[in-house]
Amino acid sequence: MEPAPGLLEQPQRTEAGSPQPEPTPWQALPVLSEQQAGDVELVLAYAAPILDKRQTSRLLKEVSALHPLPAQPHLKRVRPSRDASSPHALEMLLCLAGPASGPRSLAELLPRPAVDPRGLGQPFLVPVPARPPLTRSQFEEARAHWPTSFHEDKQVTSALAGRLFSTQERAAMQSHMERAVRAARWAAARGLRAVGAVVVDPASDHVLATAHDCSSTASPLLHAIMVCVDLVAHGQGRGTYDFAPFPACSFAPATVPYGVRAGAVRKLDTDEDGLPYVCTGYDLYVTREPCAMCAMALVHSRILRVFYGAPSPDGALGTRFRIHARPDLNHRFQVFRGVLEEQCLLLDPDT
Ligand SMILES: [Zn+2]
């Protein structure tokens, strides 16, 4: 089932020197986990003004020993007073407060002899960030409540700023998504759903499978991604379905990925024949955000990264669910949305 020659190749330009079409701008933005994308969760804590600054280091030691905050290593213990007219310059975080907390005295919060409360004023309640911030925007939000440390993930920051991929990588991404768009158009022209998908080995940029939606009343599960994963398996001498009636669905025989040949480019699960387990180490390009079934198929097939063009109301990689980042599944992968979004939206504007 080799692809018909040139079936999905770029249309050839007929006139020499005709102007290059204006490239449509697009941005591949990461689809983060719920923890990374969510608002900062706050919990109540007790703090107290430091009336005598000379006691600060002693108080810091004693309070930290009595009330360690193992789940809040990001919280700084001392902050400058927020009120410029306040007679004291510093405030100290004492301990977390329960959900139904009311006013407490120093003696209740810091019992002697563990802490000598000399130098501290009347405790007050203050909301503090419950968890370490994971992104710069969470950090900015968290520190507005209480001074917070932040161990920045540079890759996440540059991905959110749209700076993760080089010009060369973007050109390759665009070319793979254009291939998926052509497969989707091929399907649409034959009355099938306009969704296209491509699997690529990112180490070599080699296209391993190209698919479009083949679903029908008789075969409702043959979404483009299910077809594409099965075609990758065909390329490995496996696979289940017969896609002969769909000549735009094609695969290339698998080879041992570059990652294995080069030694240790990345960790790959491989089978006895040295081939990767289905999509281990591979990227998927798909014109539309995958549904829950397809997202789970990508978990099972061990995909490395997914790039999709247009979001979908039932989408399981960002819109309704974030299946790629669930801590309770045994495989997680990176997801980027927005590659050629405009063209992808035009394919299937209702969904
Ligand atoms: Zn699907």
From TrEMBL:
GO CC, alphabetical: cytoplasm; nucleus
Renumbered residue ranges of the record's region Disordered: 1-28
CDD domains: nucleoside_deaminase
PROSITE patterns: CYT_DCMP_DEAMINASES_2 (PS51747)
Record organism: Sapajus apella (Brown-capped capuchin)
Cofactor: Zn(2+)
GO biological process, one term: tRNA processing
InterPro entries tied to this protein: CMP_dCMP_dom (IPR002125), Cytidine_deaminase-like (IPR016193)
Keywords linked to the UniProt accession: tRNA processing
Any one GO molecular-function label of the UniProt entry: tRNA-specific adenosine-34 deaminase activity
Membership in a protein family: Belongs to the cytidine and deoxycytidylate deaminase family. ADAT3 subfamily.
Domain CMP/dCMP-type deaminase span(s) in chain numbering: 171-336
Protein name stated in the entry: Probable inactive tRNA-specific adenosine deaminase-like protein 3
